[in-house]
């Protein structure tokens, strides 16, 4: 059902941001004023994930999974790249039609 419409997104330019993009539904903070299409899509995937789980559960899960992955991989960047939410977003961010066909709770596939 969610794939039938585009979720609201309020884009905010934050030049001092330490990453390219950061999503806290419905806001998406971008480091650059004109982010590339793949990054916008990446953050839209996170918007969908946050709507499915709710913000609180999304960030609790995100944080706990990060800690588990950090222990697993021994490096914070490897841990970040292996969080299920990030794996889904990075695997599909270049496919700009992904959200039109994405099934609900698809991040489970990336656990």
- Low-pLDDT runs of 5+ residues are none
**Structure class:** mainly alpha
- The residue fraction in helices comes out at 40-55%
What is the overall shape? Answer: globular
Query: In DSSP terms, counting alpha (H) and pi (I) runs of 4 or more, how many helices?
Result: 5
Quickly count the domains.
1
**Quaternary state, please?**
single chain
Descriptive notes:
With 111 residues, the chain is mainly alpha-helical. The protein has one domain (2-110). It has five helices and three strands, in the order E-E-E-H-H-H-H-H. The protein has helices at residues 37-53, 55-73, 76-81, 84-92, 98-101, and strands spanning 10-13, 21-24, 27-30. Strands 1-3-2 form a three-stranded mixed β-sheet, covered by helices on one side. The longest helix is centred in the middle third of the chain and has 19 residues, at 55-73. The chain is globular, with a radius of gyration of 14 Å.
Topology:
Elements: E1 10-13, E2 21-24, E3 27-30, H1 37-53, H2 55-73, H3 76-81, H4 84-92, H5 98-101
Parallel strand pairs: 1-3
Antiparallel strand pairs: 2-3
Offer a concise description of the structure:
With 111 residues, the chain is mainly α. The chain has helices spanning 37-53, 55-73, 76-81, 84-92, 98-101; strands spanning 10-13, 21-24, 27-30.
Descriptors for this entry?
three-stranded mixed sheet; 3 strands; 5 helices; globular; mainly alpha; 111 residues
């Amino acid at each position: 059902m969610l794939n039938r419409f585009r979720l609201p997104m309020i884009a905010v330019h934050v030049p001092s941001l330490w990453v390219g993009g950061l999503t806290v539904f419905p806001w998406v903070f971008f480091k650059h004023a004109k982010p590339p299409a793949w990054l916008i899509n990446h953050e839209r995937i996170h918007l969908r994930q946050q709507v499915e789980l709710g913000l609180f559960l999304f960030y609790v899960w995100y944080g706990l999974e990060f800690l588990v992955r950090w222990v697993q991989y021994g490096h914070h960047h490897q841990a970040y790249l292996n969080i299920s939410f990030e794996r889904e977003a990075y695997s599909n961010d270049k496919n700009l039609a992904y959200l039109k066909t994405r099934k609900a709770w698809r991040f489970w596939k990336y656990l």
